[in-house]
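FYI - complex with flavin-adenine dinucleotide, inputs then prediction.
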Amino acid sequence: MTEQLQADIKPGRLSNAEIEANFSDMHPPLERPEALIEADRCYFCFDAPCTTACPTGIDIPGFIQKIRSNNVKGSAYTILSENIMGGMCSRVCPTEVLCEEVCVRNTLEDQPVRIGLLQRYATDAVFQSELQLFQRRQDTGKRVAVVGGGPASLSCAHRLASLGHQVTVLNAAEKPGGLNEYGIAAYKTVNNFAQAEVDYILDIGGIEIRNGKSLGTDFSLADLRSKYDAVFLGFGMGGVNELGLDNDQVEGVVDAVEYIAALRQADSKAELPVGRKVLVIGGGMTAIDIAVQSKRLGAEEVTIAYRRGQEQMGASQMEQDFARTSGVVIHHWLAPDLLLLSGDRVSGVQFEYTRLDGDGTLKGSGERCELDADIVFKAIGQNVLWDAMGDTADSLELEHGRIAVDDNRKTSLPDVWAGGDCINGGEDLTVCAVQDGKLAALDIDRFLRQQSGRPDGSTGHAGFCRHQILFEQSPVLCHN
Ligand SMILES: Cc1cc2nc3c(=O)[nH]c(=O)nc-3n(C[C@H](O)[C@H](O)[C@H](O)COP(=O)(O)OP(=O)(O)OC[C@H]3O[C@@H](n4cnc5c(N)ncnc54)[C@H](O)[C@@H]3O)c2cc1C
Ligand code: SF4
């Protein structure tokens, strides 16, 4: 039986061509005529609820208007000056619960403006033309250490560098990009876009990146505080929550994030072993992503089991629909109770049905069911790996196991800021991490200028764009 089960986890369930088709661009980019038609649908609302809903506050009607008037690179500048990862966010943002949800055209009779695709249209033009829109201000002589190489850290590093500071990024992984490189579903970011975006960010200059360097192993927070003028922490959440069952560590129970990282780094996806019957436990974006990607690798039966109802799932309705249309079955109100074994491998999970009692507490109903599986993915959330970070946690104020910060993303230490998934209160989205990094950088800049007795220079983006005058005076040059 064990051999049979092991044989049921194998690579090459589909041909290379099938896998390539399954992992092609999920939302192909708009062609120019489509983009112009879509831009024309915008009402250019005075109060622009879409901008308010964007965590990075991009002037959405502003960038759409520039697409309409053929100033595509000016449009990209409007986007990237608020969100330097506007290219990645146009691919991965759950726009259906952010800007597009509140778009005034989002009515029963109409559809929201496809803001995400328009954002991609504008930012792709800049990447394709290899046009660097940003330049550094004069060197301030101040040095900032940035821990982590994900969206929060890279956004912080870019803003700091543009403001003239020298930035050293210390990143544990072999490649920069964080979950953009290792976590986002492969069909959302094709053609190595994550690395192209990192290259664009680093191209501004003033950022030294050191990969394979871990806080807690290679250096401590105290080391950084003594060597640099300020520190930003953006180390994300490296740990995955356990199921909390007696035999969690049994073979065949796999961390979904780890598997997705392997999938993202694989030279050939056809070589990844995939189960015939895949069971995913969780209800967020990671659960949807591992389920859909397993299906697209050739798994026959893929089931998500979530302990609460459809409305409580962390994954948006659109993501849930996407999973269903990809052939994934979603069961609600099931809490894992016991891992079923065949030999020393998992062969399924026994669940208890759940319900909410009068005061909203989740309760087991006493009824049980079993679902077969030859691989079980844990996707029930992540946590900060404090144990791997030496005494970092001792010197910082924490809330709910994450770093406590103020509105400017400053921690309880006067010279340390933090952002992204490792801080408390965020939404664990790429776009929120980018905003955290940006806000922290602006506050670090104020701090450093005050320290050196210089006037506050953090005045937004004036003097920030190489091509601003070009855009204003010679829009012809900025045509696509
Ligand atoms: C599977 C998955 C799919 C997702 N899909 C989406 C999506 O489609 N859309 C969306 O908006 N969001 C998505 N998210 C969430 C999004 O990826 C995160 O919110 C975002 O990446 C957080 O950015 P960050 O910079 O805080 O952390 P991360 O991206 O996790 O980056 C952390 C960085 O810190 C480094 N690091 C870790 N420990 C140390 C250390 N001790 N010392 C030095 N460096 C360290 C890591 O190597 C990494 O480079 C997804 C998350 C997961 C797990
Ligand atoms: S809410 Fe919709 S129509 Fe109004 S400005 Fe934003 S994208 Fe345009």
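The CA atoms of residues 311 and 317 lie 8 Å apart. The chain is about 35% helix and 20% strand.
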